[in-house]
Amino acid sequence: MAVIPDFDLKVRAYAELMVKRGVNLQPGQLLMLSAPVEAAGFAHTVMEVAWEAGAKDVLVRWGDNTGGELRLRHAAIEVLRDIPAWLAASYNDYATEGCVFLALDTEFPPPAGLDPEKMSASRIARMQATEPFTEARMQGVVRWCIGSVATAEWASLVYPELGAGEGLAALWHDVLFCTRCLEDNPLAAWDAHIARNNAYRDKLNAAGFVELRFTSGLGTDLRVGLPGGYYFAGSQETDSHGDPYIANMPSEEIFSAPHRERVDGVVVASKPLFYNNTLIEGLRFTFKAGKVVDFSADTGAEVIEKLLATDSGSARLGEVALVPAESLIARTGKLFYTTLYDENAACHLALGASYPESISGGLEMSKEELEAAGMNQSLEHVDFMFGTPDLQVTGVDAAGIETPVFTQGTWAL
Amino acid sequence: MAVIPDFDLKVRAYAELMVKRGVNLQPGQLLMLSAPVEAAGFAHTVMEVAWEAGAKDVLVRWGDNTGGELRLRHAAIEVLRDIPAWLAASYNDYATEGCVFLALDTEFPPPAGLDPEKMSASRIARMQATEPFTEARMQGVVRWCIGSVATAEWASLVYPELGAGEGLAALWHDVLFCTRCLEDNPLAAWDAHIARNNAYRDKLNAAGFVELRFTSGLGTDLRVGLPGGYYFAGSQETDSHGDPYIANMPSEEIFSAPHRERVDGVVVASKPLFYNNTLIEGLRFTFKAGKVVDFSADTGAEVIEKLLATDSGSARLGEVALVPAESLIARTGKLFYTTLYDENAACHLALGASYPESISGGLEMSKEELEAAGMNQSLEHVDFMFGTPDLQVTGVDAAGIETPVFTQGTWAL
User: What is the predicted ipTM?
Assistant: First the structure.
């Protein structure tokens, strides 16, 4: 691996990017920072940047994958279900405008032999206990951002052929490249990227399409109907005061929801899907009236079979996202084993739940109202990539007039 | 440095020692584990051992020296004073018999230029907020143990002449040596050590001394009166149910309280004292009727001057502790820059507060009652070593009969 010049400066620029553009921390605000103990060094850089940006306080919540795995293995399910009141309060007491939330994430080789029931009990108990805080994020009260930190463990997944040190260096290079932190002025590069991304978002929302059609040389030939009042969201979001933030770093996508009953044709995945500890290759779905009626996969088909059977919405689509083939993530040519990166490498669809904000007024609607409006409901949300360098995307309006959206894998609007 | 054979096994034995003898974790109990992020690897070993010993749950509280220093530097004093209710509850809700508390500690090069007022405000606020939990430890409701973990940062203090890797290896060797973890069966070695230590403790408590006299070739010639009802405590303590635990690892001392008004003569320190970020060498005190009336030091005298002026008790003694010259810590010949180790290298005294348990019934007495009984009161408690290989300690009973306690630096009782 080539050594990254000024590595420390670039890592610091990455921390700055997440603090200043990601959560958009303002002087006098509290930064809640979630970080794995394996990434303590980078977390300290984030803390420095936050204090210098005028944070009132920095509250650090250390994550610990190894310790968490031991707990899942050994603790009784009642213990995992029992979230202490102070722990819930340690999130929910910060569901206020004065707080922004930055989550540093990293990947680990998936542990074998954990009890799926215990895993799900633990996750659900924690989700339920901290719902007011999550709600505050979803409603734009608490600005938030999630970004990844390169660690030796994650590198062992992405670069199994390299030694630990070399793999880590290669992965840091990818992280800094994909987040535009190898450029001279990452903040300016992001501002330009967001401006471009917002412009496409606005064009899509103004075009009056009722359907998108996708075709690729791999065999994709799919018509995706859009629900009435659909809204395409881009990389930048706005909080309840209209202040901007970027919830995902990197973020290249513009996405909305397909109509749950108006998807027809064939879609062929262009990248392997890593889901439920399984690598699924050669994935292909056939849809009829919104529902998967046939599928095949070279590996991992049994995992997809289970996914489709989870509930009444897990065989229908909840997200359609446009990502150009020249996306920085695509350019690395790597599978990162994390949706945060992999979904930004290519146009993708998600089986399962839609995001309420994908139609106007959706945040105020009940699940029943959303479903009636064509918005899919499910416990699942699993993204898979089908974008290719030859992908054609065509928008169709109510009069049947066709407009090129992507030609040769990239924006034509 | 010689490589330590079976290093991983010995480190695991050290974790076992702290879990099984330190906090004496029983099946079905909760382990509250405090650990610095720099020592995450060792903390994981402790977690494994605790789960295998049948812990009901392991609650980890990650410490972070670098982050804490940044916060002290940047946060306003009001922010440091404001301890959230959930944080206090995250300790105080565990002030119950079902919980044991293990604190992993490590040292760091002291940060320069921190505001002492902010440091003290932060420490006091946290101490006050978590007083019920501390009280539960002090009353023997929650068994606790504090032990050290070797880190590169601590090694840079103890072995400044070595490179990072070599220094860390040398310091791990010291930690494992001083805690008897280089022996074949560390648990058995500790059981034998505790039996010896308890036997001396019992002899001291049965001897009926009213005064101890200390003389050494360095110039120490000191008479230390003991308060009525004094009690010598050893390395092993017992909780409110009479179950044993070892609060300090390592622990070689047997200690009680001097009478606050009955200390006379000269004491000459035998090791440098590291206090308030300052190395104090060549320290010598003259006492009259319990109070320091004169002192000198080759370096750091101004720090001692401030210490003595802190309050009405900081120029009097709160602890007298007997440690034989053959103590494992003494044998390393090193200064560890942490009281946990350094005080176990030699006989020592502490300026400042006495421990209430050093007289019978002391835990139930008010500060005024304790002081009236001769037990010194102060905000400070600063240990300094004066033990030497030629130290003589003589016990004197009410009839004036003298009994050798130490000859040539070690036990003669």
Answer: 0.90
